[in-house]
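User: Assemble these into one structure.

Assistant: Restating your components, then the assembled model:
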Amino acid sequence: DAMVIQNPRYQVTQFGKPVTLSCSQTLNHNVMYWYQQKSSQAPKLLFHYYDKDFNNEADTPDNFQSRRPNTSFCFLDIRSPGLGDTAMYLCATSKRRDSQETQYFGPGTRLLVL
Amino acid sequence: KQEVTQIPAALSVPEGENLVLNCSFTDSAIYNLQWFRQDHGKGLTSLLLIQSSQREQTSGRLNASLDKSSGRSTLYIAASQPGDSATYLCAVHAGNMLTFGGGTRLMVKP
């Protein structure tokens, strides 16, 4: 059974047109992460939520925003997508932030900005 | 700033070979290190997690080692199979962040 679900799996948007990606989890984990992975590159952390606390330690620019209305759901909003935002967006969860916990990843959303 | 490097970037082997993937990191102050598998166009699947106090972890045909003082980890795959073809990523956990290497793209030929 899927534990971390991402929708949609594929998204095409136009340059400058806002887009929202969705992540949900059935694990009841406290922490939810968003990563960006460009083609043939390593995933790069965008930000994470610890419960309702938003953390942008990666200094991700304001064009990327996130919302977590409840424990199960987290959204990634891209306000004005640029061509350089074409990438795979990965959501992950962990029970806590500390060293003991593995992160569980969703299948990703492939975003294409035209 | 933590940097993670994986060598080689790509590897092609015949079925049945034993192989080693390498990961190195610059800052040894880590909590743990994870190895992930990523099939083309898909998400990440966690393979092994090694805590900083551990030297190795095993799961089936996979064995991962960690030498924190030298900033190195290896993933050993025994008796490789075509189904092992994927990209293998290592990631180090420090603070609240996972920092990933660029991955090794593995192809196992029948």
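Residues 63 and 79 of chain A are 5 Å apart (CA to CA).
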